[in-house]
Write a structure and sequence with these properties.
Blueprint lengths: L3 H4 L5 H9 L9 E5 L5 E6 L14 H16 L12 H7 L3 E5 L3 H13 L2 E6 L5 H9 L3 E4 L4 H15 L2 E2 L10 H24 L5 E5 L4 H13 L5 E7 L4 H8 L22 H8 L3 E6 L1 H13 L10 H8 L12 E5 L17
Parallel strand pairs: 2-10, 3-4, 3-6, 4-5, 7-8, 7-10, 8-9
Antiparallel strand pairs: 1-2
Helix pairs in contact: 2-8, 3-5, 3-8, 8-9, 9-11, 12-13
Amino acid sequence: MTKITDLNFSPDFKRAVQHFRTLEGYSSTALETLKTPSGLEILAKNETNRMGLGAFKALGGPYAIARLLLSEWSGQSDTRLAPEHFADQDFLSFAAKRTFVTASAGNHGLGVAAGARTFGAKARIYLAQTVPESFSARLEAQGAEVVRKGASYDDSVTEAIRDAEQTGATLLADGTWPGYTDIPKYVMEGYTVIAEELREAFETSGHWPTHVFLQAGVGGLAAAIAFMIRENWAVQPDIIVVEPEAATCLQASHTAGKPVRSDGPDSNMGRLDCKEPSIVAWHTLESCDVLYESLSEEEGSAAAEALRALGLPTTPSGAAGYGALMKHDRNRSSNAAFRPLIIVTECPDTQDKGQDNGSCT
């Protein structure tokens, strides 16, 4: 039985920010101002160049791996390890004995693979048969072992869980379910860095957004940012969580008052095509006073094309916030006080059906 404390998300966001600021290659991603053909100004947090991986997931899996390795190291060593000692040979030898396993249909697998590679650990990524071979090649280029199992993402998750149980590898999923909640909270804690970068920018400029549009798959990113907005933003916006019409698991769970599946056809918003919510993300969003919006396949594709025309190419998944903005209370576009914020979460696709995206760096 899941206890309420298992669902609580109380991130140490200062630790996450400090961790990344000590890393070579880290910098805050750009907060850009876009102007639509109608003259509406939109704030866009551009994650397409995040730390060489081309997506916000560079903050999740790698941070969780660092947290897990440091925790294990502290449990067996009297030496306090600081980030500048990550390259020490004794720590690398320790990390080389660790294997992290996950399932992926998109960028989470790349984050786990890159994080494992950074510390000399091993990564094993399960992919469904529908994931393009080019994505498999990108994982292998990061040093990961790729295993093809199952016809769907849900199937590959099942196989990753079985692998961890049989081999003793550490399961590092970005979703949560009864009995598995702690490690994905580290992933979500990594995402709080985005909200802190935004808060610092708005405190400097004084120009806070009135509305924030957050796309969601299992809900980790949306919940982490919504939590931080409610936690410490000086000016509180409306928060709109955006899902594909084919996978409205968070909205369905909100309506049901409990986590539920939302089955539907495959979506071209591939990274958002999640039929079952993270129970931690759902629980967190329930306390954040959010609204929900869903996008059709055509609206997702149109949003990506519109952002490309504005000079910010991305996928239908990455453009979902923009798509919802275009649907949300259209009359507000003529209101000078309307100041929306979107997060462009990833690079453009290099393959069809939104299942693979190339690096923008």
